[in-house]
Amino acid sequence: MAAFARWLVRTLPAAVWTVVVALLPWWMGLSVVVLSVFGAVAFDRRIVHYAELCRRALRWGLPGLLFAVQRALGGDLIAWGAALLGALAGFSLVVLMESLLDHRVQRTSQAKVSPEWSELAMAPVGPPAHIIELAWARWQEAVGVFTDAAGPARFESTGEGRGRYLFEQGKVIDKASPRYCFSPGGRWFAANLPGGRGEILWDTRSGHTHRLMGWQLSGWDGEQPWLARGNNGVPTALHEVLGQEWRR
Fold first, then answer.
1. Which of 80, 112, 89 is nearest to 33 (CA)?
2. Quick one: which of 155, 153, 151 has its CA closest to 163?
3. In contact, 220 and 183? CB cutoff 8 Å
């Protein structure tokens, strides 16, 4: 019952408006419809309530205008045909106008969501900063069989402070000193070159091995090795070290 009452309150004024426009002379009804169009456009995005009233006046006033037009034409079959053609053209223009107005409202609301220039100016540029905190390399001396991050391994000495590492995966690293370490997560294996002339790095994930003469392991940033030239050198990420070695 409440729903019917709300429908009646909404529909009855519109039906009365249609009858009023139909009883007016056609030229006066046309003026009312044109004013409704101007009102719907003028109040759009300014006074939403008035714009909606003008739209409803246009929708319900147009049938009354067409009835007034066919009455003025004599009310015969030709007059009704002209009224129906006018209804088709009129309602098509109304739908087009409301579609354009609604599209403009959507574009305006989207534009308002975009940040102001001051927010863009204060926004950070580029990726967030990453503070490098190196974890010290924990060197050990390999003597015979030892356990690596993936399982047992063995160091075979060939004399003069050098030898070869044999890993369970089948990997062999020769011409290395017995001083070795692993990255905190076990991805990288590092060993000194004989005589401290550099480092050997083995990526256990990809299988790549790097022999870097003149570089010393400074520590680990997560699972990535950082190296420096000499004890007082500036630590450098491995990818930069490899780039420098390639350019040499």
1. 89
2. 155
3. yes
Task: Reduce the DSSP state of residue 13 to 3 states and report it.
Answer: helix
3-state secondary structure of 218: strand
Is residue 201 within 8 Å of residue 173, measured between CB atoms? no
Whole-prediction pTM value?
A: 0.47
Give the tens place of pLDDT for each residue, 75-126: 677 777 777 777 677 667 667 766 766 665 455 445 445 556 566 566 666 6
Residue with tokens 């609301």: 109
Q: Where are the alpha helices (DSSP H) in the chain?
A: 2-23, 26-42, 48-72, 77-113, 117-122, 238-247
Per-residue pLDDT at 201: 93
Q: How are beta strands 179-182 and 172-176 bridged, if at all?
A: unpaired
